[in-house]
C-alpha cells in the first residue's frame, strides 16, 4: 500500500515520485479539443488580450483539483461515493443520470476531436477516422486493466507530446513577450464578444468528470488505519503533483492562444473560428510541418481525453450506483453520439459547441457538492477539513464559475 510509506518531512523528488500521476490524468481534461477551439478563437480574434483568462482559469483549476484530491485522500472514497452516502436515493439517481449525460457530451467533443485530427492529418473521411478513433481508444483503455500506473504513464507521455508540439509551433513565429506578460496580469475586454468568449474559456475551466475521477485516483492510497497526519502529508505531495500537471496544462493552453495571436491575429486573419480552418490556414503560412504538428497535438489530445473520460464515467457509475459494466461496453455507449453526428453529417464545430453547452449544465452538480463536503468536519476530519480562507475562496470561485456557465448558456441559447 503506497500510504504505508508516505515520506514524513523530506519531500525530495525521488521519494515523492511514486505518488505523482493522478493529477496528470485529470489535467488532460484541460487540454482537450474543446480548449483548442476556444483558445484558437481567442487568439485569432483578440491577440494576446485574453491571456489573463488562461492564467485565471489555471489557478481556479488547481484549487478545484486540490479539493477533489483532498476528499479522496481524507475519506478513502471518491466524490460520487461520498454523494451517494449523503444524498437521498432519488437525489443520487438524478445526479447520476445528469453525470451520464454530461459524460456523453464530454466524450463527443473529445472523440470528435481525435477523429478530426485523423481526418486532417491523413485525409481520411470522417466516418473512417471515427472508427479508427474507436479502436484506438479501446486499445488505450486496455492499459488500465494492467494497472493504473501504466495508464498514468501513458497519459503523461501524451501530455508531453502535446506540449512538445506546441513548443515547436511557438518557435515558428516571434512573439512580443512584454505584451504577453502585460496581458497575463491586466484583465481587460474589448467589447461584448470578448466577454462572451472569456466566459466560455473561464466557464469551461471545470470539467465535471475530472473532479469525480481525481478523487477516485487518490483514494486507494489510504485506508482506515491511515492517520490524519499521514493523510495530510499525502495531500501535500498530491499538491506538488497538481501544481506540475496543471502548470503544464496551463502553458499548453497559453501556447495555443499565443500561437493563434502571432500567426492569425497579427496577419489580420481574425475570422479563424474553427479547428479545421486553423489547420488549413497554418500550412500556407508556416508550412506543412507546422500544420502537421497542430494535427498531431489535436489527435493525441482527443485520444487521451476520450480515454480518460470513459474511465471517469466508469468511476461515476460505480460511485453512485455501486455497479460496473465492462470498460469496452461503456466505451461503445459513450461514443455512440459521436457516430451519429458523423453519420448525419452535422457540422463538427457546431456539435462541439452543443456539447460544451450540455457540459456546462452539469458543472454545478459536481462543483457545489465538492465545496460543501470538503468543508464538513464530520466527513473530512479535523485535520483535512477546509480552513475558513479555503472555504471563502472555494465558494467565491464556485459562484463565479457557475455564474459564467449560466451566462454562457444564455448567450448560446439567445444566439
The number of distinct structural domains comes to 1
Helix percentage range = over 70%
Structural category is mainly alpha
Look at the structure and give the mean pLDDT: 86
What kind of sheet is the major sheet? Answer: none
Secondary structure elements and their pairing?
Elements lengths: L12 H4 L5 H6 L5 H14 L4 H25 L3 H8 L2 H34 L3 H20 L2 H23 L6 H9 L6 H12 L4 H11 L9 H36 L11 H12 L1 H34 L5 H18 L3 H15 L1 H11 L2 H8 L3 H26 L2
Would you give an account of this structure?
79% of the residues lie in helices and 0% in strands. It has one domain: Amino acid/polyamine transporter I. It has 19 helices and no strands. By secondary structure, the protein is an all-alpha fold. Helix 3 (33-46) packs antiparallel against helix 10 (192-203), helix 4 (51-75) packs antiparallel against helix 12 and helix 13 (275-286) packs antiparallel against helix 14. 50% of the residues are buried. It has helices at 13-16, 22-27, 33-46, 51-75, 79-86, 89-122, 126-145, 148-170, 177-185, 192-203, 208-218, 228-263, 275-286, 288-321, 327-344, 348-362, 364-374, 377-384, 388-413.
Brief write-up:
The protein has helices at residues 13-16, 22-27, 33-46, 51-75, 79-86, 89-122, 126-145, 148-170, 177-185, 192-203, 208-218, 228-263, 275-286, 288-321, 327-344, 348-362, 364-374, 377-384, 388-413.
